[in-house]
Design a protein that fits this description.
five-stranded parallel sheet; 7 helices; globular
Length: 179
Amino acid sequence: MIKEKTPFVIAISAVSGGGKTTITKLLNQKLHNSKILFFDEYNFNGPDDIINWVDNGGDANDWDVSPLIKDLQVLLTESLDYIILDFPFSYKHSQVSKFIDFSIFIDTPLDIALARRVTRDFCNSSTEDILSEMKNYTSRGRRGYLNMLETIKPDADFVIDGTLQAAEVINIILDNLKN
């Protein structure tokens, strides 16, 4: 009996504003016969206060990602070549890690990631809201970013420079996938 080929699952991780969504979408355009699952399209049950969660060990398994796993299992039955996960936890979530074949971490400097996130999330916000977010970042939020660099990045199969142009990142990733 010949086993059918299953899709190759690629996880893309980075800090918030690090380029996960952009790179995931562009990679999907370049990889034939692929589909994407985006972490942010789900309403997961998880910690209410991310920084308290990080301060208490930040166990990715505290997040109930069952809806994503269910969708991933469905895609694994399709005749796809690739499944790309925009997934911040990469190998750190035990239920998802067993499906991942290759993990990429986009290593974006924190100042660039923060600027991207504020530009994206606060484009219609007041100056007071933006200043409040900056105060939160410096007093608490930065710890969450640093935690990802300490916990997710070291386990990635491949780390890419997040300051590179998106097209260059895609070309480097495609070269690495060929190998």
